[in-house]
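Input.
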Amino acid sequence: MHENYFENIDTFEKAYWLGFLITDGSVKCNRVALSLSIKDEFIIDKFIEALNIPKERKRYYIHKLNGKEYSSVTISLISEKMVSDLKHFNVVQRKTFICIFPKLENRNLDLALLSGCFDGDGCGGSSVICSGNYAFLKQIKERFGIVYPICQKKNNVYVLSVGCALLKEAQNLICYIERKKIYGDFYNSRTKNKKSGLTKNTTYMKCLIWMEKNNLNILDFKVLIDTHGLAYVGKKFNCSGSKIKNICKHLNIPLPTLQERAFSMRKCTRPSKEELTKLLEKTSYVQVGKMFNVSDNAIRKWLK
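Output.
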């Protein structure tokens, strides 16, 4: 095992793993640990390879949360030297609110460090880093001159968008999690498509293809929605009501209001209150209800 690995951060790989430990690692006493979801086991394997740790130290666990089971994989190692070296970068026990973004020898090492931080606490499909430590994100913002503001979300979680260009520059140096690299690779082309209207046209065509696949025309589709509602139509075509709503949005199909839906779902045409009052003078609520094929309680509600 390379106990001196973090003594001198002079390679992109060392800077990357330092960033990953700052955001997702843990230190307790003389133990350094990294625990991830089982789907990210390859990251643990990369870490093991980099530090030359025996693979036998890898452990698997199952956690239960809200009635669901989650599998994780953990690698931990005992090293006073490594704990001491990491302490210089504020990677210590309970580091969440005191961690820092250390300044390394040059910009490229800082970028590799940023890439590791993003793979640890970044949001896939975006350039956003999340943290419970406002000061940590402020250091990143100032280090790279990021123009985007730091925003606070619920539960005292702060987010900072580092920007596509900076993230792509960092990930071009080193990045192991491909699903978090997609944004940097395709954002520019996607932005150009949005500006030229290509994305909108593509979505429109996809909606038309979906309609054709299900043997529907726009008129019949609208009648179906007006009659039964989004949830029913979604279930009928094995998708969610939200998808049906989005299809209507992109195909410019107007959706009925709640009041219109309520009127369309009525079993019969309601008489006026005056007509109901006259009928009730001659017979009971039950008999009037039978006239309109509804219950006696429905008649009472009509009178309100």
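The beta strands are 25-28, 31-37, 58-65, 68-78, 128-131, 150-152, 158-161.
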